[in-house]
Design a protein that fits this description.
Ubiquitin Conjugating Enzyme; 5 helices; single chain; alpha+beta
Length: 201
């Protein structure tokens, strides 16, 4: 456990002081078991301008076992399923995958960012999206851009988030509640303005 914590502290220093391009990552607590990351969509891809939030769970046997990573922000991609789970070799141990203890959180997140911009339709989690990517690419790109605009540029809204794999609904966070109150306030103001206009007529 001490070895695991020492390594994770070093990785956290690296992520803080010299993070990979387009990636930020921070721990959710002092035990360094759960991390949150944000990946910026690469330019000249259908995900450009998007901010994609990920959840990283570090197992007790890390680095001998890979971290569990999933997208929290919804993304239209052949290698990412409806729960945000990712099909990527580096997230699986041999012989099914390529994880080795030499890998770390920074290299995993870099690989995920590369996969985001360059999907692998030959090893999909979403076969229908993979087929669309290969045979109806214009349609795929249109939908992926639409999802990026709708969800990845408003990453804190509840509608932009994947459901938990268990199917549990995510409770409103403080920022979500503020957004709901703001929308309600705007709606009330517009309604009052409309009523005043009718009275004047």
């Amino acid at each position: 456990m001490a070895q695991r914590m020492g390594r994770l502290r070093k990785e956290l220093q690296q992520l803080t002081h010299s993070p990979p391009a387009g990636i930020t990552c921070w721990p959710e607590g002092d035990d360094l078991t759960l991390f949150t990351a944000v990946i910026m969509g690469e330019e000249n891809t259908v995900y450009a301008g998007g901010m994609f939030r990920l959840e990283i769970e570090v197992p007790d046997r890390y680095p001998f076992l890979p971290p569990k990573v999933r997208f929290v922000t919804k993304v239209y991609h052949p290698n990412i399923d409806d729960a945000g789970r990712i099909c990527l070799d580096v997230l699986k141990v041999a012989p099914a995958g390529s994880w080795r203890p030499i890998h770390n959180l920074a290299s995993v997140l870099t690989s995920i960012r590369l996969l985001l911009g360059s999907p692998n339709p030959h090893d999909p989690l979403m076969t229908d999206i993979a087929e669309e990517y290969q045979f109806k690419n214009a349609q795929f790109e249109s939908t992926a851009r639409e999802w990026t605009e709708k969800y990845a540029k408003n990453p804190d809204l509840p509608s932009a988030l994947h459901q938990e794999p268990s199917g549990k609904k995510r409770s409103l966070q403080p920022e979500d509640e503020e957004e709901r109150k703001s929308e309600h306030s705007r709606g009330s103001a517009e309604e009052e303005k409309s009523n005043n206009k009718k009275q004047k007529q």
